[in-house]
Prior knowledge:
Strand content: under 5%
Number of domains: 1
Number of strands: 0
Largest sheet: none
Amino acid sequence: MSDLGGGDSDDRPESEVMPPERPRIDADSRARTHLANERTFLAWLRTGLSLLALGLGAAQFLDRDLVPGIPVTAIFSAFLVLGGAIIATIGRAHYMQGRSEIDVGGFRPADREIAVAAVLVIFCGVVALVLVLLIRFRG
């Protein structure tokens, strides 16, 4: 191998001489990705706050004695408030994980977090349906 620089020649393959370069990401693209991550976090936060507000509203305005001896409204309200707090917490964790993954150039989708959020919302929907039916047929 010819050495144009005048130094010692190296018989090692080129991949061993120089470390592989990481793909370059321009600053604008990285900034857009971080902004998208922040918008996603805000969506998680809005969903959590909506569930919190719905839980407080249910506790305030729903009839407390839908099923005698069973605090259905209190349980439903507490579950909504707890679910809202869990969703906001999941959103923050997903944001922080996404932020660090964007910085290092590797991003993984949030499969588990999305599944938990979906199960919480589906459960709230089923319980809300039961409450609507109890309220409708009670009167």
